[in-house]
Fold each of these.
Amino acid sequence: MESISLSNEVKIPKIMLGSFQMNKESDMDEVVEEALTHGVYGFDTSPSYKTEEMLANAIHKSLSKHSDIKRSDLFVDSKIDSWQMMEGKGDIRKYVEEMLEKTNLSYLDLLLIHWPEPNFYTETYKCMEKLYEEGIIKSIGVCNFRIRHFERLIKDGATITPHVMQNEIHPFNVEEELVNYCKDHGIVVQAYSPLCRMIPEIANDATLNILARKYNVSVAQLMLRFHTERGLVPIVKTSSKKRVLENTDIFGFTIEDDDMTTISMLDRHFKMFLESRCCPGY
Amino acid sequence: MEGIIKIIVIIALIIVLIGILLYLANKAYFKFLRHDKPTSYFKDLRWRNTDSILVGQGKVFKYLYPRKYQQKVYMCMTYKRALDMDFAALKTYYSHVKPGGTVKIFVDYGDYSKNKGLRTPADYEIIHPHIFMALNEKKPKRKLKYPIAFYTRYTFGYLFMRAFKMVGIYKKMEIKPSKVSYNEADVKAMGDKLREMAEFVLEREMHPVILLMDNKDKSINQELAEAARAAGDVEIRVIYNNNDLKTACL
């Protein structure tokens, strides 16, 4: 699968698989195996998903079956959660080391701050900068940021511009200003919940359905293609093996500019994950 | 001998009866609490992009008869809460409001000093646990199971208020101004917290409105308003009667 270069030349796949709310080891094994078989090499996890070990085990199992694929071909990211930032008061080294030890992944391609915990995210980020400089993690990033969070990072003395930002983005929450800010600063944007969890309002949306029919694809494929054409990396989650192929088979068509605009106009600032409910004081 | 047995039986019956009543009161408390508790944002996809949010606490809560939530106002006001917990509620729930929306903060100087440092079962129920983690406060899990025993005054107060409210006793009553007199330290501390809350709201590009309950000593609200306005563009309204309250809050 094609990839995008981060500002530090690390390559990130154009589409990745998420692991939020995956709780069956057998599903994880099947999904990862299917993904590697079809050239999907990007995986996203987090301590709060409780899937780090399960995902890593599935990766190790699949790699042992595919002698042509190496760890270095894969892109695995994980996150630092708020409780870790708070407990470590920003010093999160031990959590990264523990994570690498229990997953046996030897390094992380990307480590992200999960939520900008108001009192500790800048200290956490500075600790991540050190881990990056030591080569323990290949790139660093942030999730769920607004522009004011980036500005505070700079003000508080961060020296490395985040390589990646991961936010909730889908047709009901396009985040035009934020995405443009990231583009201007060389930050690659990952979109989580890229399908807005296929809530009925999205799945039955007339515009999306008309356009999906026009391009002869599913509504999910249309939305995922919408993200990649914006230069974003969608992180799509599925527990079903057959969906892996459907959700990643999106590069055989192109959405016309007018249709891109039409989809963007569905924006209604709707978010599944309300920031302050996830991260008080956000 | 027979007389003593009778007395023992009567005492035992009274104890059992009181136990049953306390058990039922404890249950009723949780029922009311669940009714007042904000919904799970992840399961209930409504209540997003509301025009405003209302936080605050006070005796006037009993005069407000909102539906649990309204499309326009996300209701986080309650019966009794410390001001720092109001701020915590604001920090937890403000994302329900649309960008550029309004944050209404109701405060009553008359309740401020009474509730300083107060923690109620409702606080632990609705405020994000990270707030308590940041304050180095542990959730008293066992106590929270039996609020009737460990938060007796608060729980009975809340139960009576909710029960009276349910039968409409307060509907015809008029609110009265607070009579708590001026205390320099309290007015300053309260003013500082209001300024901090207003700054929080402004930093998130929302519109802060501070609703001050009328007080006999007018200088108190003047000073509080001045302190809050130091944050920037803050709207101040004084609540004199039921109509003001309804218009401002709902």
Note: Chain A is about 45% helix and 15% strand.
Amino acid sequence: MINQYNGISPKGDLLLLQRLARVLGGRSFLHVNSTREGGGVAEILQRMIPILQGLGIDARWEVISGDEQFFEMTKKVHNALQGNKETVTDAMWQHHFEINRQNAANIDLDADAVIIHDPQPGPLVEFKKKGVWIWRCHIDISNPFRDVYNALGRYALKYDAIIFSVSKFARAMNIDEFIIPPSIDPLSEKNRELSDDEISETAKRLGIPADRPIILQVSRFDRFKDPLGVIKSYRMVKKYNDCVLVLAGSPATDDPEGAAVLNEVKEFAANDPDIHILLLPPFSDRDINALQRMAFVVLQKSLKEGFGLTVAEAMWKGKPVIGGAVGGIPLQIVHGITGFLVHSIEGAAFRIRQLLNTPEMADAMGERAKEFVRKNFLITRQIRDYLSAWYIMENKGKSIIEF
Amino acid sequence: MIEGFEFKQCISILKSTGKKAGNLHTLKDLVAQVSDDSIFHHTYQYFLKEHILEYTNDFAHWAGESLEERSLAEQLSNIDPYEYDSTSDLRKELLSVIGNYIERFPEPREAMRGDEFYFNETITLIFPIGIRVKNLAEFLMAIKFVDAGSIYYHFYEARMRVGGGIDDFSKWIEESLDKKGLAERIRAIDPFMHNTEDIRRHIAEQIEKELRGDMEVMGVEE
């Protein structure tokens, strides 16, 4: 399976993966998160597990289940870690632990290496059996609401190591902290090459006009993604350049606020025929791929962001991306080289106009963006880093490891 | 029998030290405290990144972009890590430059929240990439083909490993191919003034020139 990436991923990444597979082959590697669909974590795990298995690693992916109360609480925890002031009571933390205790009884946690994704399954570490346990934090915790951060910390510190997506999310914690950015799969339905027919079929079916440049933002309907700010930017641009705005997102089962935000966005769009709000069902990967390929400019105007993988997705399709300078977005967008970083609605509007008026700049930026993603943000690099972190934890104390 | 050259590559896995500096006073304190691995990462390994030669290490980059202390950024950028025999000598120079600047401007500005300097370090994984060459023509093919991480390992990282400012490529060319002139020309390429892709291009140019010279040694009879 890894051979499919020959000629796409950097050679060195593929070679190191083979070396790591030789030393870790046959051993068990468990990933646990809280949703099988929607959001970047589920998406990358769907692709990563078969590749790991193809490398000879006994990889498994388990999903914890919980009730509405559990997911409402974990959403609050998520928002609090991103800086919102939230009230999470002792009773809620107790319920959080209880749901994890029930899940621990149903999931086989016996593995040589275990990666627990995000806060929802965090307490599973209390039921560790053996092996290296790593907590994988995908959230921007650079400025968290302290009470919630401290309460979660009691679990985080029980892990052997933590993985953050960006250095600035890491804290002084006295345990090993790896910095591993997430990635996209160039061969997935969401990122593979599409024919012109496939792209125009999607445009026709979703009612997106092809006669004007398309400005696109793909993200969950979440206030931290600033969908209203995107509409305001579009309105500023529209005074000068005729264009179409597409806001596309899928619902996630662990995000109860999505419906409310979607209604706000629809109301704010006020029936503008050139604003297309698309609530795509889960697994609409090919449609998202087509939308990104038909776009002229892609936005990710987030106010808070874990990493913002939609940025790398659009860059891989050779598109210039305008992104908020938050979370992992500045790691992907080198300002003025592989895209533009913006700090305001006005900034986003200005850069959209600049690109619409200089298509040759948009093309050159898009080309550089694609090469940047090839070197830094493909799934093979992330698997390489996960296996390396596991191997490093089993060979602690060495700063150089030679194969 | 000529000993072949085996290409290797290194890949660095990033770890956070959990330490961060929001102004120059804290930066100086932490530069004095952090591990050699961390200093190595923020200076020598800067050359592993694709960068424009605006800055030559992470400290200069941060001083220029986040603190907008342009003069300090220039002074830090002028520190060539390959001039120093050890990381501890390099650390002393960094401390001296930052210290002198603080004496002249004792109230430096604070970085914006989230834009502090984050001290990282790396674990380096080294592996052969399955390419062994026996002569200069094969070497030329290989140097054009390998990942930038392989150029970094043999041209930059080797200087600290081999010592004396000598890279793996020129060492092999001199010792195994007995081409002292070419080895010297490769050693004359300044590692500090280029990124890995520039280095790849310059080495390939020198080898092509050498091969052309070897080929034309017989000349064409009139």
Note: The interface with chain B takes residues 10-13, 15-16, 19, 142-143, 164, 167-168, 170-174, 176-180, 372, 375, 384-385, 388-389, 392, 398-403 of chain A (CB under 8 Å).
